[in-house]
Task: inverse folding
């Protein structure tokens, strides 16, 4: 990598906030646009950016938009602390610094010609949405698309209109569940693993991509293996405290890996022993 | 129209069961329908049957005073509803609420308890199947209790 490229990857590029949409009571989707005359950086589904809220701090956020439209960078952010609160409080016309995209993407090439199983928990649907866009945009290159999505409660479900729209697409099965439902909710209730019994899986010809809390991913990998998926066909997106995003600072070290550089998407086989380590 | 014998013998829950037991099960079975909004059973009432859900959706509700009921699980086509009939004191632990029009096969638990006492092989076969369901749901409940999506 040249010195200029290294410098660029550390230098936030100012972007304009075009839109902020409330998804759930604490989760918002921001649409950012590069300055006029500057092309957006192409990204792979699963990659992330470092978003700089001027005067507050920098955050690693997965890109949740369509990779075919790189000049509209879309991020879904849960407001859980000072920096994320400042980010989601941005107004249209405001400015945010963007570095990236960084990290590895979902295995869209390895999945070509096969069924794609997407399993998401909570805000974990955001980093997987670009895969769904990509598969639907390139429909003839992939087999069936199966989306299994679990959230805490009905009001915590992301992208509800899109979920309904995806479910209407050909060769696509979308199953949604919540951990706890109220009496007004007539959908499925139960943890995300309870959806597998309704999914029409063909394990021998499928690739699975999982994103959510680490415990949830452990439960899901077990369930996928029970259903006959090979470990080599399972991929996870990991999360740690990413700071520099280029593997220098070591904040996101995970065993022998740096999540920012070697991940966030990993083949399950490569990190399976680490998932069981309490200290990590 | 499918006969009870055919449905029960082909149901995944009874997969591998000696065919001679199917007749015993059928003699304790009946078709039932529940309108959306109706309750199949209520917490605290006697548990004298279990159900093979054939279509529709059933919510298991937990009631707490001065709170709206919480749905802890839903069951749909192909799933088994209820195991309180199997264990003393034979009372339901949840409300079962049909959230859609629901068709089910009810199996008379009192009748089956007697048959299981008379025929321990049948009892063991049924217990193995229910133990598996209980284990799967226990694991799911533990996962649910972790509340993994909360903001911590």
Result:
């Amino acid at each position: 990598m040249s010195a200029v490229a290294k410098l660029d990857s550390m230098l936030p590029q100012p972007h304009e906030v075009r839109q902020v949409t409330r998804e759930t009571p604490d989760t918002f989707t921001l649409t950012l646009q590069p300055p006029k005359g500057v092309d957006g950086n192409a990204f792979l589904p699963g990659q992330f950016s470092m978003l700089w809220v001027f005067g507050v701090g920098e955050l690693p956020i997965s890109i949740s938009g369509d990779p075919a439209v790189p000049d509209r960078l879309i991020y879904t952010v849960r407001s859980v602390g000072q920096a994320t609160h400042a980010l989601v409080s941005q107004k249209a016309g405001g400015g945010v610094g963007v570095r990236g995209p960084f990290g590895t993407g979902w295995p869209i090439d390895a999945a070509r010609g096969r069924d794609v199983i997407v399993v998401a928990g909570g805000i974990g649907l955001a980093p997987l949405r670009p895969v769904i866009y990509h598969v639907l945009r390139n429909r003839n290159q992939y087999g069936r698309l199966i989306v299994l999505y679990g959230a805490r409660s009905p009001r915590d479900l992301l992208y509800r209109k899109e979920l309904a729209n995806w479910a209407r697409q050909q060769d696509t099965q979308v199953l949604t569940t919540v951990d706890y439902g109220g009496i007004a909710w007539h959908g499925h209730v139960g943890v995300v693993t309870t959806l597998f019994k309704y999914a029409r899986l063909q394990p021998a010809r499928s690739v699975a991509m999982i994103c959510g809390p680490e415990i949830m991913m452990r439960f899901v990998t077990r369930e996928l293996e029970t259903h006959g998926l090979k470990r080599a066909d399972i991929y996870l997106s990991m999360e740690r405290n990413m700071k520099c995003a280029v593997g220098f600072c070591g904040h996101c070290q995970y065993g022998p890996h740096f999540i920012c550089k070697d991940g966030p998407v990993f083949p399950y086989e490569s990190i399976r022993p680490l998932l069981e380590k309490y200290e990590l | 129209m499918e006969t009870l014998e055919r449905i029960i013998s082909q149901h995944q829950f009874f997969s591998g069961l000696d065919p001679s037991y199917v007749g015993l099960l059928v003699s304790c079975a009946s078709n039932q329908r529940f309108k959306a909004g109706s309750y199949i059973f209520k917490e605290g009432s006697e548990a004298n049957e279990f159900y093979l859900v054939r279509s529709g959706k059933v919510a298991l509700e937990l009631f707490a005073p001065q709170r709206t009921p919480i749905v802890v699980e839903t069951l749909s086509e192909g799933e088994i509803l209820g195991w309180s009939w199997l264990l003393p004191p034979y009372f339901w632990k949840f409300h079962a609420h049909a959230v859609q029009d629901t068709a089910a096969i009810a199996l008379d638990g009192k009748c089956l308890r007697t048959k299981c006492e008379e025929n321990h092989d049948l009892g063991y076969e049924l217990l193995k199947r229910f133990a598996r369901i209980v284990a799967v749901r226990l694991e799911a409940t533990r996962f649910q209790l972790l509340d993994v999506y909360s903001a911590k």
Chain B has a mean pLDDT of 91. The longest strand of chain B covers residues 49-55.
